[in-house]
């Protein structure tokens, strides 16, 4: 491209901008309507959602007991909070203090 061509910039009027926005909105609607319709089946079953929620590391109310299967995400969260390589001594002390106050 020539330098002269790259320096040209179209000045849009408010009406042109609104017309472009409307056209893009319509094109998006057509695109979305054309997507394959399928039922979401990857989530938790309706009859067991509470049980599944209690197992999820972000929502569990009780920590796993010795011998329980530990979710990898739970292990990762523990590492972020309690690993001496990830935290300073002061951060670790504060984390343990907060846990003690929570119990």
TrEMBL record:
Q: Which residues form a coiled coil?
A: none
Q: What is this protein called?
A: (Mediterranean fruit fly) hypothetical protein
For this entry, list what GO says about its biological process: protein folding
Which molecular-function annotations from GO does this UniProt entry contain?
Hsp70 protein binding; Hsp90 protein binding
Superkingdom, according to UniProt?
Eukaryota
Pull one GO CC term from this UniProt entry.
cytosol
């Amino acid at each position: 491209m020539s330098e002269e061509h790259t320096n040209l910039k179209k000045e849009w009027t408010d009406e042109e901008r609104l017309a472009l926005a409307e056209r893009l909105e319509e094109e998006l609607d057509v695109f979305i309507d054309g997507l394959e319709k399928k039922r979401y089946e990857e989530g938790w079953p309706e009859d067991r959602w509470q049980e599944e929620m209690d197992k999820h590391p972000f929502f569990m109310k009780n920590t796993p007991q010795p011998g329980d299967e530990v979710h990898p995400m739970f292990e990762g969260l523990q590492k972020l909070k309690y690993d001496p390589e990830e935290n300073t001594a002061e951060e670790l002390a504060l984390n343990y203090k907060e846990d003690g106050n929570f119990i």
